[in-house]
Amino acid sequence: MSNKSKSYPFNILNSWTELLAVPRPLIMGVVNITPDSFADGGRFFRPADALAQARALMAAGADILDLGGESTRPNADPLPLEEELRRVLPVIEALAAENPVPISIDTYKAGVAEKALDAGASIINDISALRFDPGMAPLAAARQVPVVLMHMQGTPRDMQRQPHYDDLLGEIKAFFRERLEYAVSQSIPRDLLILDPGIGFGKTWRHNLEILNNLDTFLDLECPLLVGPSRKAFIGHLTGQPAGPERDAGTLAALAVAVLRGARLVRTHNVAFARQFLTVLDSICRESLERGGGD
To answer: Which residues are catalytic?
Structure first.
């Protein structure tokens, strides 16, 4: 089905421009339609449960919904395309019919992304940064949708087996530059590209802390930065909390540093916590700036 044959609830180019103009961090709410997610234990594997969770995240204030049907946790095996489609399409179709916030499809498969866009998604979140499937860049160029380019060392199956960098920040930045050049060469407009340093994807807990503390290193690339520390293993390492909602408080600390260092978008499982926390953080920072400007 061609994207021209479907009536979309908004014009994605106008919507994306308008979203980026919002003077606060944007919140991307995560819906894992998988039986084996580290973050929620497969609670939203059934379409009805995933749809209910997506609605709850919208009600809590999500600016974007990020739906994924394949787990990319450490040591995860690849999922067949047809099974991934079976998981995500019914949920995307149901949400699109309700005129929701923009929907992001979390996949590295062009076949999944194409069907998801046909069904009503309007953003591609590719953990491989257009590397794993040669059809992804042409698809993104043809559809002219925003694309998240994420840094990852290795693949989900092997990325946490002794990740090593000689120059962590320099290597990630060089990767971003190369991926941006490639994407633009494939006719994807630069203003539709988002950069994600890939917290937890081929990084030790120390690597994750270094990235968060130095996120502003990537600001001169002049693309919006997306950071997704939500419920990741490094929070468990630091706090001793098991995987899942018990790591939500630690997640907020990581979100605070990310936003203060320049993150434009944050990806999280607990949108209600993130919205309340970031609202207060933003208000405090604004009050400080206004008071400073008046002295």
So the answer is: 232, 267
